[in-house]
Automatic annotation (TrEMBL), chain A:
Start and end residues of each Cytochrome b/b6 N-terminal region profile domain: 11-233
Location(s) in or outside the cell: Membrane
Domain Cytochrome b/b6 C-terminal region profile: 288-433
Pfam families in alphabetical order: Cytochrom_B_C, Cytochrome_B
InterPro entries: Cyt_b/b6_C (IPR005798), Cyt_b/b6_C_sf (IPR036150), Cyt_b/b6_N (IPR005797), Cytb/b6-like_sf (IPR027387), Di-haem_cyt_TM (IPR016174)
Record carries keyword Secreted: no
UniProt xrefs under Gene3D superfamilies: Cytochrome Bc1 Complex, Chain C
Keywords (A to Z) from UniProt: Electron transport, Heme, Iron, Membrane, Metal-binding, Transmembrane, Transmembrane helix, Transport
The protein, known as: Cytochrome b N-terminal domain-containing protein
Primary location recorded for the protein, binned into one broad class: membrane
Automatic annotation (TrEMBL), chain B:
PANTHER family, alphabetized: CYTOCHROME B-C1 COMPLEX SUBUNIT RIESKE, MITOCHONDRIAL
Gene Ontology terms for molecular function: 2 iron, 2 sulfur cluster binding; metal ion binding
PROSITE patterns referenced in this protein's UniProt entry, alphabetically: RIESKE (PS51296)
Origin: domain of life: Bacteria
Name of one Pfam family that matches: Rieske
The protein's name in its UniProt record: Rieske 2Fe-2S domain-containing protein
Keywords from the named record: 2Fe-2S, Disulfide bond, Iron, Iron-sulfur, Membrane, Metal-binding, Transmembrane, Transmembrane helix
Spans traversing the lipid bilayer: 12-34
Gene3D superfamilies: Rieske [2Fe-2S] iron-sulphur domain
Signal peptide limits: none
Keyword Transmembrane appears in the UniProt entry: yes
Length: 433, 156
């Protein structure tokens, strides 16, 4: 019965049945839905422990954010009078509006985390050397875009968190030498935060940045294939265990056979060997669906059990005490609070040092790291290779410092940004003034 | 003598004009983002009558500033932190201004005691409107010693 149904399905959806592996591979390339996969994928690329699938999880989260975000656009009104109340409506009067909002919010938090962890994975497996340096840099723009998406996103509710985040954020931009005032005016669409500012951030959040991420991710994926698949494959290829095969014509399965250079299946299958790889359909497809389902379920469960916060309506005359950025920006808040320098009669604001110079230098360092790195090809695609101990420590120390600053910001800063130890209570403050 | 074919000249003119048209269009689109009209609160505004404010430091929430009164002398100090723009609070017991965002502290004259704020809080010029209201001019910064004494009220 089952085979009967299966063959019925085949007759309905396929005009022809592949008779060889090669034909099956071509079938993948010719199918609209799956043509962007390589025909065959090396076993190593499926490994859970090598990539941790963090890139795919990030992409799934981006997809969830796009769908929930697009639905939220039907309810959210980007106006300073109505924004806050349209969020309240989502939480309390739109059926399942809370679910939509919560899922969007938690997926956003998770995406910041997984994109960062993905970057850490790529670093610790030395997967950014040589021709992959470009894709590492594309990745850095993706990390930056992810952070900007979150930043522009949490402004939209126009609650106290939103207002003070936008105030502090745009004032940091204002500290930039020479162009600061100009950027500030353009970002705000005037001299004070108001309707013009909200609509600008809104368009960035729902169109410009996600559009950019979409293009950059597409490029990121294309580059992975043109760079010869995941870095772990390079080492497999060069390892002696794989017996030389008779040379195969290097036909690519690319559209029209026009693309130059290597592509995964050429390398993967010809050099790694048929027996070390699997067909993308159904194996890769099934794996991606699994990752999708697990990620989706995780965001859904979070959304059901935890509500996205909403503070009081924006009020420019009262800053909450303490006023805290979300966790992934708290290390920056900690930095801008600690880095104002007094040199004789000159003062350099922490906004410039902690808000622009330090994060800018960190990004620059990350972007140039592939060229400073001198690890040997043996380390490519390997977790924690011994010769990279120093580099890995440098990376880890920077990350630990950032996490420490975050922890201080989240857990130890009380009213007036004073340090309180976990065993100390915050003083009771008079509410308004 | 250099000769340039008529065809080449025309081609270059044609290409430049198409390109130029693009640039003008892009320039116009960018320019649209620099507003010509700002619907913003005026820089000069009334904050109430002198007799509305008791002695000492009083917060005026709508305008994010404090009135400072001692007898018939009035000063206006900004509540906008010079670090990154949060609203500072007046802690009368200490006494000082404190910023909740990154913990800057200011003396009653606005100078920085501690914290990341790079500059003292701003003081603004004051005047009296014909109908007897204090008028603040945010565009005119003054020294922290500046005080304004409204003329004694004439009997109407
Ligand atoms: C929106 C954010 C991002 C998405 C959706 C994404 C997606 C992916 C995916 C699906 C892979 C395949 C392997 C895997 O799943 O781990 C990958 C690999 C890679 N990613 Fe990303 N990525 C993002 C951000 C980044 C960042 C922040 C970096 C580094 C700065 C980066 C650098 C790389 C590199 C170099 C590879 C090749 C790794 C290898 O050859 O083993 N990506 N990315
Ligand atoms: S904004 Fe006041 S201390 Fe940073």
């Amino acid at each position: 019965m089952k085979t009967r149904l299966l063959s019925l399905w085949r007759t309905l959806t396929w005009s022809w049945t592949p008779i060889s592996e090669r034909e099956a591979g071509e079938a993948v390339v010719r199918n609209f839905w799956i043509h962007w996969f390589p025909a065959k994928v090396a076993d190593q690329s499926f490994s859970w422990s090598y990539s941790l699938w963090l890139g795919t999880i990030s992409l799934v989260l981006f997809f969830i954010l796009t769908v929930t975000g697009f639905l939220l656009m039907f309810f959210y009104v980007p106006s300073v009078e109505r924004a806050y109340w349209s969020i309240k409506d989502l939480d309390f009067s739109v059926s399942f509006g809370w679910l939509l909002r919560n899922q969007h919010r938690w997926a956003a938090h998770l995406m910041v985390a997984t994109v960062f962890l993905h970057m850490a994975r790529v670093f610790f497996t030395c997967a950014y050397r040589g021709r992959r340096a470009l894709n590492w840099q594309v990745g850095i723009t993706l990390l930056l875009s992810t952070l900007l998406l979150s930043f522009t996103g949490y402004l939209l509710p126009w609650d106290q968190l939103a207002l003070w985040a936008i105030t502090v954020g745009t004032n940091i931009a204002k500290e930039a030498p020479l162009v600061g005032d100009w950027i500030y005016f353009l970002l705000l669409g005037g001299n004070v935060i108001g309707q013009e500012t909200l609509i600008r951030f809104y368009v960035f959040h729902v169109f410009i940045i996600p559009g950019f991420v979409l293009l950059a991710v597409a490029y990121h994926m294309w580059r992975i294939r043109k760079d010869g698949g995941l870095a772990a494959l390079d080492r497999l290829e060069s390892s002696a265990e794989i017996k030389e095969k008779a040379p195969v014509p290097t036909k690519t399965y690319s559209l029209f056979g026009l693309a130059k250079g290597t592509s995964v299946q050429v390398k993967g299958v010809d050099k790694i060997g048929e027996e070390n790889s699997l067909f993308a359909t159904p194996h890769l497809l099934r794996r991606i669906m699994l990752v999708f389902l697990v990620t989706f379920t995780a965001t859904l469960l979070l959304a059901i059990f935890f509500n996205a916060p909403l503070e009081e309506a924006a009020n420019p005359s009262v800053t909450p005490n303490p006023a805290k950025a979300p966790w992934y920006f708290l290390w920056l808040q900690e930095l801008v609070a600690d880095t104002t320098l007094h040199l004789g009669k000159y003062t350099i604001s922490g906004g410039l040092i902690g808000g622009i110079l330090i994060p800018g230098l960190l990004l620059l360092l990350a972007a140039l790291w592939p060229f400073l790195d001198r690890s040997s090809p043996q380390s490519l695609g390997v977790w924690f290779p011994p010769e990279r101990r120093t580099q890995n420590w440098i990376f880890a120390v920077i990350v630990i410092a950032i996490i420490l600053l975050m922890y201080i910001g989240v857990a130890m800063r009380g009213p007036n940004w004073k340090i309180y130890w976990p065993w100390q209570n915050w003083p009771q403050l008079p509410t308004l003034l | 003598m250099v000769t340039i074919a008529r065809r080449t000249v025309l081609k270059v003119i044609g290409q430049l004009s198409v390109f130029g048209a693009f640039l003008i269009q892009i320039g116009g689109a960018v320019r649209a983002f620099i507003p010509n009209v700002l619907y913003e609160p005026p820089k000069k505004f009334k904050v109430g009558k002198p007799e509305d404010y008791p002695e000492g430091v009083n917060f005026v929430p709508e305008h994010r500033l404090f009135t400072v009164r001692s007898a018939n002398e009035f000063g206006i100090i900004s509540a906008v932190c010079t670090h990154l723009g949060c609203t500072v609070r007046w802690e009368s017991k200490v006494p000082e201004f404190e910023c909740p965002c990154h913990g800057s502290h200011f003396r009653p004259d606005g100078t920085v005691i501690s914290g990341p704020a790079p500059r003292p809080l701003a003081w603004f010029a004051l005047s009296l409107s014909p109908d007897g209201y204090l008028v603040v001019d945010r565009s005119e910064q003054v020294a922290s010693t500046y005080r304004f004494s409204p003329p004694a009220k004439e009997k109407a």
